[in-house]
Amino acid sequence: MGTPLAETIRPSTLDEVVGQKHLIGENKPLRRIIESKSIPNMIFYGPSGVGKTTIARLIAKSTDMTLHKLNGTSASISDIKDIIAETQMFGGLGGILLYLDEIQYLNKKQQQSLLEFIEDGRITLIASTTENPYFYVYNAIISRCTMFEFKPVEPGDISAAVRRAFQFMAQQFGRKLSLENGVVEHISSGCGGDVRKAMNTVELCCISADNDSESLTVRMELVRQLTQRSNMRYDREGDEHYDILSALQKSIRGSDPDAAVHYAARLCEAGDIISLSRRLLVIASEDVGLAYPMAVPIVKACVDSAMQLGLPEARIPLGEAAVLLATAPKSNSAYMAMDSALADIRKGEAATIPRNLQNKHFDGDDAAVKGQHYLYPHDYPDHWVKQQYLPDNLIGRHYYEYGDNKAEQTAKAYWDKIKK
To answer: What is the pLDDT of residues 303-334, one digit of tens each?
Structure first.
């Protein structure tokens, strides 16, 4: 099996790397560090296919240190020990540069075994991860490293790499290249900021393109067939999953139906209607709440319909729920009241329930006041009578504040009148 195109044409200089100009552009921090040849311990984090491994390899080429590469998915503690042992040998006198890809897959013991050696400089660590390192890398490692965040590459930057890849493939085939209008732009915008995916798409296009003795012709119809599903980033267990859910909720909370539908559509396209449904149900109570209480049963009905229908039809009721929540009036009063009450309970302020609210049971002979003395509100005008409900130590405590929406202000006016 041949070497993948993405590996074959991997950049050999910093100037050939597309994207990440905030790190390796002229006079930017990472570029200046690399050019200084004084390499600190570093962690590169960001999505796949954006240049983390490429830049790590370029750094390794720029130094006189002995390079070792490990991948967290397959590295064992013995692999790490072998590298540590080399620090005592002739080959380690100039220092060892360890490039550790997917560091998040190493367990705590494996990561900690490196601490002493990266701290005293015998090993210089460049680690990369597609996950947020503050969640997946142990603090002791993080405290000894400089963080650099890699971002998805913009379509305009990817276009240059796509054109270069097509030219390389045409040379490999010994053919003249012919691209229909829009081919480069379609691949560049459809890879979700992942240069590797774009390279893979170029390779597939060239392998399956119209190929005669003189020319290699890539048509838009073929490109669309090879990229029928958007190559957007999505990982149900990773940061992107939670980023989309967070963006969905914040868009609905901000009453932006267009953004709400966009993020809901990304979840539908990924086939993750369970996460979408759960988050919509949360939003109905947390962000719309008592401003429009009917949002809860309506969203529940939409979710039930989606689960019964399955994709692709599930997108219809889920889209309805997203738009409904985004355009509904908002209130978080009940949500805030519950969290405030929970805070008191967690501080130990859950005292004895007032006697008049307890379930009817026998009073002991030593009870100062015998009998429940509960006042049944339905026996009084307007179905209300004043009596104690909170425990003694919380009398007068207020958790709920009426929201400034029509529904809650109407309820406030009603009870203000009755309770005088």
So the answer is: 999 988 888 899 999 999 999 999 999 999 99
Token digits for 249? 């909720």
| Six-digit token string for 26 | 């002229």
Strands (E), 63-211: 66-71, 96-101, 123-129, 146-149, 176-179, 210-211
Closest Cα to residue 148, out of 253, 36, 20? 20
Give the type of residue at 346: R
CA dist., res. 206 & res. 9, Å (int):
15
Quote the CA–CA distance of 197 and 190 in Å, as a whole number. Answer: 9
Interatomic CA distance for residues 222 and 187, integer angstroms:
11
SS3 at position 76: coil
Query: What's the pTM?
Result: 0.60
Which of these, 255, 306, 238, lies nearest to 277 by C-alpha position? 306
Q: Distance between CA 303 and CA 308 in Å, rounded?
A: 9
Reported as a single tens digit per residue, the pLDDT across 3-31 is 888 888 898 889 889 888 999 999 899 99
Helix 273-283 vs helix 257-269: crossing angle, to nearest 10: 150
